[in-house]
Amino acid sequence: MAEDREKRDGRREYRMEELARLAGITVRTLRFYRERKLIPPPRREGRIAWYNDHHLARLRTISALLARGHTLSGIAELAEAFDHGRDVGDLLGLNAPTEETPVRLTPEELADHFAGEVTAENLAAAMELGYIGTDGDEIVHVSRRLLEVSSALVREGVPLVEVLDAGRRVREHADALAALFTDLILRHASEEDLPRLRPLAKSAVEAELSMALDRRARKQAQ
Fold this sequence. Notes:
4-stranded antiparallel sheet, MerR_fam, 10 helices, elongated, DNA-binding, MerR family transcriptional regulator, MerR-type_HTH_dom, DNA-bd_dom_put_sf
């Protein structure tokens, strides 16, 4: 019998020995990962266990995260958070107007952005905030700008847990500002005018934030 086969839907399935070979690990290691629930259970066909490309991607991710210094227990926690994360459809919604560009990442690419800071707790917090969602074996960050800012702050020595906490507080203020602007416009115009006048709200908030930072800097220098 062939070690792997292609199903009607185009997905490929593998026997244990072939999966281990493709992942660059031993069968014994594969069994250990399965016992630790680092990978999902295989599909059973009688006494035969069939694995698929999702299992292969997960095994390659485990190897990459181990190479980056993560422990198996930490990877297990990440895997659990990843498997129970928000679906990308729930994260982005359908036809939601936005100026932000989502970014697709593998788990190891996410780890590279936040070296040593990607924990199950931080992953769950980011999912709760709506920053990231899952799409198969990929992670989708809702905003390239937020991803770049948060990773830059971590590189400057700010712990990711504090960056996420700050993001939560900023979200509260941003929601209040959005409500203020929306209520102002709707008192004098219609909902159809909101998209056209949206840049005015952004400009006002950016200008006020810039001046607030100047005031804070002067106060700190005194």
